[in-house]
Amino acid sequence: MTLTLQHGQALLPILLTAATVVAVMLAIAIRRHHGWNTLVAIIGLNIALYSTYFSFQVIPLEVTPLIIIDGFALFFSALILMTALACITLGYVYFENFKRNREEFYLLMCIATLGCLVLVSAHHMASLFIGLEILSLSLYGLIAYTYDRARSLEAGIKYLVLSATASCVLLFGMSLLYAEGGNLSFAAIGQQLANPSLLSMIGVVMLMIGLVFKLSLAPFHIWTPDVYEGASAPIATYLATAAKVAVFAVMVRFLLIDAPQIMQSAEFVFILVWIAVLSILVGNLLALKQKNIKRLLAYSSIAHFGYLLVLLLTGSQTIGIEGFTIYIAIYVMTSLAAFGVVILMSKSHEERDADHSRDYRGLFWHRPMLTSVLTLSLLSLAGIPLTAGFIAKFYVINAGMAAGAWGAVLLLSVVIGSAISLYYYLNTIVTLFVNKSSEYRLDASLDWGQRAGGLIVIGAAGLVLALGIYPKPLMELVQLTLFP
After folding, report:
1. I need a surface site. Which of 60, 146, 324, 474 has the fewest CB within 10 A?
2. How far, in Å, are 176, 201, 278, 355, 481 from residue 198 at the CA level?
3. CA-to-CA distance for 182 and 276, rounded, in angstroms?
4. pLDDT above 60 for 113
């Protein structure tokens, strides 16, 4: 296969992100300076983000048998790059007074982002695994980055062991599929599963187990609250947003775009239905008694990715892809706002993050704007009208109604899960408005709203509110990008 300038143009976001990794590495080698190294990472990722416009002019294009660049890949590449930029900017505020080397954080974030971009462009099992491992290996270091804290080191080791096990299961599933069909492209696997053998079904189930673990869907969710709690706040934010977006995006490409034959298997659909139902109920029920904000958001993310799985079960490729894309974009904005408040309230040199509910008791009385942002994001996660989360829930309910035989089960689980979630979201909001506490509390700096991290949090909250009132621009963008 001969590579042309068009192939290079299509690959610009991946190539420029890889160049940013090298540039950050060289910047660290030349001079360790927190601001300088952060600036190099931000400039590089901004250029990569801007380059998606030029890539859009030559799509769809299969660059190699492993990588395809189309509207789907570019939309999620842009979303991941914007999320990474937000996490890096918030990380700069968080690590400002970190006692150890800070610069490797930005290097690892850029490498993880490169892995995410490879994932969303993959349409072959080889590129899926390469992207997944680039992402996972970076996350091992990021989760344990504040290793002076016992919980961070524990979370890093726990994620390393369990994630490596999931990768082994995923690889074994790939080997079974290859043994049966002799080809690992998504399309070829889809054709192979049109009339599946027992070996093929075992292989695809093992493959899905690996992906479901990375997405922390039930029953492979146990690691999630411990890792979110142990990881520093900016890394938990990245883990909850960009990392999961990339894995879910490649799963959607596999199941709905390249190999839709799999979704015609009643047995496979049955498995996905019960993973979705279990994730929604388990995530919401286990969040009920959480006093730790990061653990609460971790359980909430399990439920939300259960809702996302409902969108895959509509039976319609167009409705499923459009609904998934809008839901995930709204979820990312909302999570950035919620986790952003935790980041601004926390400091890396403290023994722990501001993640306990008592740290937010009476927050309204001295940080009213931060309280407003956190309240709005929690209401959006609950799916309350006039927030973007309501639009996302509307798509899920619409998908459940179109899900055929399993529609009633899915709708019932969505309604019950949403009702349960109202309790713990509203309970957290009430804590923000009670009388001021005399207990020790971590706090945001006085000038938080004038700094880049604060502006990102306010901007994310503003988008959540604006899209809740007028969602048409997001819908048109999704239509333009995915269905030109």
Report:
1. 60
2. 10, 5, 25, 47, 38
3. 31
4. yes
Q: What percent of the chain has pLDDT over 70?
A: 96
Q: Please determine, for residue 437, whether its predicted confidence score (pLDDT) is greater than 80.
A: no
61: part of which helix (H) or strand (E)? Answer: strand 61-62
pLDDT digit string (tens) for 240-268?
999 999 999 999 999 999 888 888 888 88
DSSP 351-375: SS-S-BGGGGTTGGGT-HHHHHHHH
Q: What is the mean pLDDT of the chain?
A: 90
Residues found in the chain: 484
Rounded distance between C-alpha atoms, residue 273 and residue 270, angstroms:
5
Gap between the Cα atoms of 403 and 411, Å rounded? 9
How far apart CA 222 and CA 216 sit, in angstroms, is 8
How does pLDDT run across 289-341, given as a tens digit for each residue? 899 999 999 999 999 999 999 998 886 778 889 999 999 999 999 999 999 99
Q: Please choose, from the candidates 368, 370, 392, the residue with its C-alpha nearest in 3D space to the C-alpha of residue 467.
A: 392
Which residues are within 8 A (CB) of 309 and not within 5 positions of it... i.e. 6 or more apart?
A: 217, 272, 275, 276, 279
Helical H segments across 215-292, by residue range: 223-230, 233-238, 244-252, 266-287
Distance, CA of 432 to CA of 420 (rounded, Å): 20
d(CA 266, CA 264): 6
> How far apart are alpha carbons 266 and 222 in whole angstroms?
28
- Residue 88 burial (C-beta neighbours within 10 Å; 0-12, 13-18, 19+): buried
Amino acid at 442: L
The answer to whether 47 touches 217, Cβ cutoff 8 Å, is: no
Q: State the pLDDT at residue 474.
A: 93
Residue 472 in tokens: 């048409």
pTM of the model: 0.95
One DSSP character per residue, 111-168 reads HHHHHHHHHHTB-BHHHHHHHHHHHHHHHHHHHTTTTTSHHHHHHHHHHHHHHHHHHH
Read off the pLDDT of residues 337-353 as tens digits, 9 standing for 90 and up: 999 999 998 887 677 88
Neighbours of 318 (CB within 10 A): 11
